[in-house]
């Protein structure tokens, strides 16, 4: 269905209200959205806590969860007006949310060929009759709440922080076998678990021709994680987003499109400022792995063999709990781990040598920036991929194995001169530490010490 037709049919999206109730020891929040004239959505989320959320101090967090949830439903028709009846926002807050909609939905706009640049493309209004709720104080918070996704990045964070003194816990949204094992193998017990339910009507609309596409999911996790942290008295909410996530895919209508926008540095910085101003400054949200490239994290991950067979990163086969072996994500994870994980273990993890699979060639070329565009997946930079290829060639030689034809052809095309190329790229990637991060000093020291041991 054409955008103009959808916007004419649905001129306004309304965040109407939210409802809070107890569900056992947890808290259930249900949101009410309306896509005018007559479509209603009621998504919900269940939050883990031993305390109630009836206190007015938590209403602001609940209200904001509805704001971030609304993105997924607004995008079905992209109405020109977004009316927030459930609460009041200042002009500065409205500007912040407008910025998140535009940057966070960049991939969605591109894939649906939507021109989001007109000044009046999206008008956000809030309820002037509602009181503005100031940031709240939670001075009794302590310890680290680590968000767990089931991939190698969260595994590295869990392993490196487990020896740190103090209170530590884990948080998982809609848990998978991999995310549960991530935490369990690292020695963390009793994770806090939340459940998010999408309204089935949204999926039916998508099937009938309404718009669909990528949303800034990590932004949702940021708001959710801080709220769960507050509900359970944690001081730090720790995620595992890396330096590589800040690199975009390409530009569309003058704006950078980044599949990983809400994993990147810009979002982290803006979210921290928003959270401290409008939610609470007693909780810190930061990415523990922000100073590192993805390839550096792969090298760290190789030091935890007990995690190697349990982690999963493939989005295609997520429900099957396996690697599809035929997507850009599987390809990047494979080439980034190949130089560091023993060959036999790689075969156990992935089932075969991907470098001997002709079907991954297009993905490798996209990852290297040789063809097409950077894949819409959570992958590293083109420079990292080049170093991974150079290191993989070196690994085959050191093992006395025949170098696959794909690597031989890339060696010529990329002008890889073994030692010189690896030394140059190693200095630009493996030896690098980004100062653009928000790590407290103690966490900086832990990560730097671990990194030094791998070099």
Automatic annotation (TrEMBL):
Q: Which GO terms describe its biological process?
A: cell division; cell wall organization; peptidoglycan biosynthetic process; regulation of cell shape
UniProt pathway annotation: Cell wall biogenesis; peptidoglycan biosynthesis
Specify the enzyme's EC class, one word: isomerase
Q: Name one GO molecular function term.
A: racemase and epimerase activity, acting on amino acids and derivatives
User: Which UniProt keyword terms apply here?
Assistant: Cell cycle, Cell division, Cell shape, Cell wall biogenesis/degradation, Isomerase, Peptidoglycan synthesis
Under which EC number(s) is this enzyme classified?
Answer: 5.1.1.23
| Superkingdom of source | Bacteria
MurL N-terminal domain span = 8-288
Q: Write out the GO cellular component annotations.
A: cytoplasm
Q: Which residues form the MurL C-terminal domain?
A: 311-397
* Catalytically driven reaction(s): UDP-N-acetyl-alpha-D-muramoyl-L-alanyl-L-glutamate + ATP + H2O = UDP-N-acetyl-alpha-D-muramoyl-L-alanyl-D-glutamate + AMP + diphosphate + H(+)
Function according to Swiss-Prot or TrEMBL: Cell wall formation. Catalyzes epimerization of the terminal L-glutamate in UDP-N-acetyl-alpha-D-muramoyl-L-alanyl-L-glutamate.
Q: Which family does it belong to?
A: Belongs to the MurL family.
Q: What is this protein called?
A: UDP-N-acetyl-alpha-D-muramoyl-L-alanyl-L-glutamate epimerase
Biological classification of the source: Bacteria, Candidatus Curtissiibacteriota
């Amino acid at each position: 269905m054409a955008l103009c037709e959808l916007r004419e049919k649905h001129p306004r999206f309304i965040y109407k209200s939210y409802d809070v109730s107890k569900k056992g020891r947890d808290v259930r929040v249900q949101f009410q959205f309306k896509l005018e004239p007559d479509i209603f959505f009621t998504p919900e989320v269940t939050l883990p806590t031993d305390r109630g959320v009836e206190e007015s101090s938590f209403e602001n967090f609940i209200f904001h969860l509805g704001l971030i949830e609304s993105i997924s439903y607004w995008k079905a028709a992209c109405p020109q007006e977004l009316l927030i009846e459930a609460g009041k926002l200042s002009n500065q807050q409205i500007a912040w949310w407008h910025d998140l909609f535009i940057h966070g939905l960049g991939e969605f706009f591109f894939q649906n060929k939507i021109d989001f640049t007109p000044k009046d493309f999206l008008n956000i209004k809030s309820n002037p009759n509602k009181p503005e709720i100031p940031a709240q104080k939670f001075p009794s918070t302590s310890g680290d709440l680590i968000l767990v996704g089931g991939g190698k990045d969260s595994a590295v964070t869990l392993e490196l922080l487990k020896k740190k003194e103090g209170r530590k816990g884990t948080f998982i949204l809609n848990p998978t076998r991999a995310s549960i094992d991530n935490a369990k193998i690292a020695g963390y017990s009793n994770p806090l678990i939340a459940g998010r339910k999408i309204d089935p009507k949204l999926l039916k609309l998508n099937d009938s021709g309404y718009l669909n596409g990528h949303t800034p999911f990590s932004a949702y996790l940021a708001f959710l994680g801080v709220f769960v942290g507050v509900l359970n008295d944690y001081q730090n909410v720790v995620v595992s987003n890396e330096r590589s996530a800040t690199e975009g895919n390409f530009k569309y209508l003058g704006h950078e499109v980044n599949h990983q926008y809400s994993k990147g540095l810009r979002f982290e910085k803006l979210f921290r400022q928003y959270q401290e101003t409008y939610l609470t400054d007693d909780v810190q949200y930061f990415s523990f792995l922000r100073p590192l490239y993805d390839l550096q994290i792969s090298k760290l991950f190789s030091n935890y063999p007990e995690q190697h067979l349990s982690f999963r990163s493939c989005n295609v086969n997520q429900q099957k709990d396996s690697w599809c072996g035929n997507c850009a994500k599987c390809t990047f994870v494979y080439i980034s781990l190949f130089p560091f994980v023993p060959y036999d273990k790689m075969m156990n993890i992935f089932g075969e040598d991907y470098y001997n699979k002709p079907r991954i060639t297009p993905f490798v070329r996209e990852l290297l920036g040789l063809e097409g565009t950077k894949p819409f997946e959570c992958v590293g930079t083109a420079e990292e991929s080049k170093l991974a290829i150079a290191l993989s060639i070196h690994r085959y030689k050191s093992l006395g194995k025949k170098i696959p034809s794909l690597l031989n052809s890339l060696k010529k095309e990329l002008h890889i001169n073994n030692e010189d190329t690896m030394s140059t790229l190693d200095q630009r990637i493996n030896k690098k530490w980004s100062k653009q991060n928000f790590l407290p000093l103690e966490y900086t020291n832990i990560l730097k010490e671990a990194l030094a041991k791998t070099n």
